[in-house]
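User: Please predict structures.

Assistant: First:
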Amino acid sequence: MPNRSISDDELSFNLNLGKNLKYLRKQKNWTQTKVAEGLSVSFQQIQKYEKGLNAPSPTSLCKLAQMFKCSIDRLCSENLIHDLKTFKEKIENLEIATADGVAVPLEGMSGEIEALTNKLRKNSQVFVNNKPLVFKFKKPEEVDPWL
């Protein structure tokens, strides 16, 4: 079967999707082989996706969205990487307000912030339509009494 030429739009889509796939894969510390196993394809096929040389089938695109816990349109978004980096910066600059209104920066809590960022990223499909995030404590005794 001869190679067909692809349009500029298809090429742009493939390159953008590939960049997003690589970024998300690396954020999860996954190998191309691990992603390939989830799709039942070779790691070479994942390399081609990441380089924008090939595009996944619709079925594979759905599986990728499930693996990375995001919507297909988000997976293909031109802004995905920028938005995730911006979100991480906002989390890193997060402050907690005490009951008397004093803001306390979360200095020295980089491990906790990274864990929060990872948890939010893992469950990012839940946070849609700019709904506010509400933090709940599982047990009341987990709340620091000085807050």
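Second:
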Amino acid sequence: MLPLGNNSAPDPDVHPLKTSYAKYIKHFIYEWEQDLAAGRNTAKWQREAKQATGERMSGAYDEWKEKEREEHWGQKYDPEHFKGFKQ
């Protein structure tokens, strides 16, 4: 969680790594570098992620999800069980 600030505009003359946000910025940069090293966030990865999102939305993985649900939870999804619950 980021530190509470005074909601004032940032001072453009102060380097971000010389502020109270430095540890958060450094952590984000570290994670970003790790993602890049693992092949994530590249143009190819983003294209594949976008394609997979479309496939999930079209139901391409529904059968797999149902099989995994039973394997991991030990039971199939029963919509009757949730009747009467408000969403």
